[in-house]
Design a protein that fits this description.
Helix content is about 45%, strand content about 20%. It starts with a helix and ends with a strand. The longest helix has about 50 residues. The chain has 2 domains: about 140 residues, no CATH class; about 220 residues, 3-Layer(aba) Sandwich (Rossmann fold), CATH 3.40.50. The chain has 12 helices and 13 strands. It is of the alpha/beta class.
Length: about 425
Amino acid sequence: MDWAGAMKISLPFSRLLNDRGGNFGIITAIVAPLAFGAAGIAIDITQAMQIKAELQAMADSASLAASKAMSEDDLTPAQAKERAEKIYAGQMVNYLKTGKETDAEIDEMIAAQKAALKITIAEAANGSRGKTYTITVASTYQMPVNAMTGLITGSNMNLATSSTAASATESTNGISMYLALDRSGSMSFKTSTVIKNASCVNYTENNWGNKNVTNTRDSRYIWPEKPCYVRKIDALKTAAGSMFTALNTADKNSNLVRVGAVSYTDETQSASSIDWGTSKAAKYVSNLPSIPEGGTDANGAMTAAINALKSSNSTEKDAHSKKGNNSFSRFIVLMTDGKMTGYSANFNYNLDQGVRAKCDAAKKDGIQVYTVAFMAPSEGKSLLNYCATDSSYYYEPDDMEDLVKAFGEIAEKAAKATTRLTN
């Protein structure tokens, strides 16, 4: 090694380092460009993070809006894509513009942002009738950078975002409902609702024993009078009508709702078998006698309802499957205005317990039981309160208005089971 030559180089450099007079300027000249470069890169990185967050928010809003529009507004994939592009590009241009651009330049900016988007739409089945939509909005943006950052990334930094949103149309769930309705003699009694400008025979518990007296000279004869009150049976028909209307509204094409009905006194009358829509059940209820007679025993009616709806009976499942309803809910609506007496005027404990046992069996099988104790005595209220699926399934109206309201609410609650929306 040429030590003499090395000494010639090192001695001046050593003197330079040991010279305190000009070191600050030299070090500054060396370090300052590096410091400014690092600061410039840091600024670009911070800006990139902010812009990327904005891009993500824009992509999210575009994908969510488009997916929602497909499920709620029934947009086609092409229309949904166009909506997503419009939302994203509009927001992006608002973010980037300086306010000095001409309309033509704004249009060019919007076109460029749309061109930078990649939108994919996937569609799949949701149950028998519904559909699910998955929309992905992917975007890129070339962010200009300073010269120091450009040494690493080039003149622009590529920022990419992607957002996926899903929505669904409603899938359908059928319902099968069976009405078990009291048409005993007490259903001929008057309510508190007045029929204006009319006179009629108002039956009550006190004069019911004289209903068959036809001799007008007999003091027991029941004369028509004013005001005339709506009978319980007619109040029931009105209430059932409101229920059928609500169910028809939920199922305009009779593809979801199946209804059956049976009435009872101390005996069980012939039933209206469960069928699509409400027309058969509505006719059955409308044809109930205007002055019903007899005692009260709901055991046979409950048996008929349970047999029609029980899970071991495949009739309802098969019927709904043929309509494309892969699932369905089962309901019994048990209504009475009295207590279990059989063919007598006295409470019959065994009959009451029999109805309770049938209610237990229905609920154990998964059948939902609504109960309506209309102007009923304490024994009737106790029974129906027990039979209801829970307290929200139990009603005890004391007038026609509340009876109509109760049947309407039951229909609305049941109708909600026909739709299941997944977002």
